[in-house]
Specification:
This protein is 21% helix and 29% strand. The protein is α+β, with helices and mostly antiparallel strands and 529 residues long.
Length: 529
């Protein structure tokens, strides 16, 4: 396969070349003058069989990234109403910096892709995104693969990596192991963690009383060393992280963390370090900390009535974040953090660096602040997080129903959906234990405050246990009867499963070995085309 590539510069200069794609590493490098990058593109012929399935990774954790057929397309927004600018839905994904042709047979994404026919994979992955996200677009109608570097506006001078690519064919394990070995990230065992999150039952409606009540319920079900995580709602406002909400937690969080430890659990806490909501003290008092684009604070989306990005390069903002994590770990005694909405750290290309390079630098900064404390990353472009976070969400938030309301279905690829979250768990499974431990989001056993069927709950819980490294629920375990306690214990046994394989043709299924016996989980709610 011959890749024809082209670099265009702002002053009108161009550099072109070609490279024969070989199995393994393909690093395409050229010398560029002192200038500004306008575009970097590449194209090659790439045939696909009619029954072949196509996966192209989406922009961030929540982006819906399914396998597609040769006639499918990658949608942006299902309704023009979702493009209403004050909502800011385009800011959750890549919509504002790339075009979506909305053409049947054209699929699109970032960083890596595979083509699968039966059990045979053809994997194409970036080896280094610091020069800019590797944008991948495949037109099955024309049999054409187009690549581009997301680097418009970045200065260049000297050696430039046009593309750093890895290509392999073969079995699933073979192609993924080869790709990660080429990146210097060989597969390694990841501690699988289980526990509780307050979010998908309480949401922001938490206080000390209900958290301690949920903790009491968990004490009769969870195991020593499991995680009890307090999610969003403990803080006075998003962005104000140095104190707990005085009305909800009048004694602060140190005592709550101590109570979690007394039960034998690890204490986890949710934060969103790179953003602040517009009614926070940080927003009101430190507008100079906000990340500005064209002179205006960068609006990240509609959560919490609207929220904005913090510039972690601002010296005082950076020191504030250091103080925050010192407070969380040293003063309050938390063991683990879930860090959310991380995409906000790097929304645009800058003359000094691409948005991908800045994103990698932001995650590295968080790694520095957290030291050896485990990080669950969330809402983050995946490849910049490779090897830096311990665990990472690889799908959207699950919902309290299967696939959302009619209105929700008109929204973006990052919308809430149990169905789409489960599909991402299946199709991003190759990252688990290589890039990080995959977090498939929570499962449920409860019946109240939930609209999932029994079969949907079972399928979600078992798939999470078999394919993920984070096994959390948001149920109030005080309400568990003995039948549900036994169901939970049976699910925990799945964490010991070995030789886990996924087969997507026909009715999707997961096969695995448990206690020396071959077993199978069918996924009829996700029937392939």
């Amino acid at each position: 396969m011959e890749l024809l590539w082209r670099v265009e510069l702002e002053n009108g200069g161009t550099v072109t070349g070609s490279a024969l794609m070989q199995p393994g590493e393909n690093r395409i490098v050229c010398d560029l003058p002192d200038d500004t990058l306008k575009s970097v593109t590449g194209a090659m012929l790439w045939d696909t069989e009619p029954d072949e399935r196509i996966f192209i990774n989406g922009f961030q954790s929540w982006t819906y990234s399914p396998e597609c057929g040769v006639k499918d397309r990658t949608p942006s927004f299902a309704s023009p109403l979702a493009r209403f600018r004050p909502l800011g839905l385009e800011r959750y994904g890549d919509y504002y910096f790339t075009d979506y042709p909305e053409t049947p047979g054209v699929t699109h994404g970032e960083s890596y892709a595979y083509w699968r026919r039966g059990e045979h994979f053809r994997l194409l992955g970036s080896l280094d995104e610091s020069g800019g996200y590797t944008m991948i677009r495949y037109d099955a109608n024309a049999g054409k693969l187009t690549l581009s570097r997301d680097c418009c506006g970045v200065r260049c001078n000297g050696t430039f990596h046009v593309f750093d690519l890895f290509y392999a064919e073969g079995a699933e394990e073979t192609v993924y192991n080869g790709w990660f070995a080429a990146m210097g990230l060989p597969k390694k065992p990841v501690e699988r963690i289980a526990g509780y999150s307050s979010w998908y039952n309480r949401y922001q409606n938490i206080d000390e009383k209900c958290i301690l009540s949920d903790l009491s319920g968990c004490a009769g079900v969870l195991s020593e060393g499991d995680v009890f995580q307090i999610d969003d709602g403990w803080e006075p406002a998003v962005g104000d992280w140095l104190t707990a909400d005085a009305k909800k937690f009048p004694k602060g969080l140190r005592g709550t963390a101590d109570r979690i430890h007394e039960k034998g659990f690890r204490a986890g806490l949710w934060l969103s370090p790179f953003v602040c909501q517009k009614n926070s003290e940080i927003f009101r008092r430190h507008k100079d900390w906000l990340l500005r684009v064209d002179g205006k604070p960068w609006y990240c989306g509609m959560n919490w009535g609207g929220f904005y990005a913090i510039d972690f390069d601002h010296p005082q903002a950076a020191q504030y974040l250091r103080d925050v994590f010192r407070r969380v770990f040293t003063d309050w005694g938390f063991d683990l953090v879930k860090l959310d909405f991380l995409y906000a750290a790097a929304p645009v290309n800058l003359p000094t660096e691409s948005r991908a390079k800045r994103m990698r630098r932001a995650v590295r900064f968080l790694r520095e602040l957290c030291g050896e404390h485990p990080i669950i990353g969330c809402g983050v472009p995946l490849m910049p997080a490779f090897g830096l976070v311990d665990y990472c969400r690889i799908g959207c938030d699950v919902g309290l129903d299967w696939d959302g309301s009619f209105i929700m279905k008109m929204a973006h690829r990052e919308r809430i959906s149990t169905k789409q979250s489960l599909e991402n768990t299946l199709f991003r499974r190759g990252l688990n234990g290589r890039a990080f431990g995959n977090d498939p989001d929570v499962f449920f056993l409860r019946s109240d405050n939930l609209k999932l069927s029994g079969g949907q709950k079972t399928m979600l819980a078992r798939a999470d246990a078999l394919l993920g490294s984070v096994f959390f629920t948001s149920d109030d375990m005080n309400a568990y009867d003995e039948e549900k306690r036994e169901s939970y214990r049976e699910l925990r046994r799945l964490l010991a499963a070995e030789n886990v394989r996924v087969h997507m043709d026909g009715v999707p299924r997961i096969e695995y070995t448990l206690d020396g016996e071959e077993q199978r989980l069918a996924l009829p709610f996700l029937h392939a085309d």
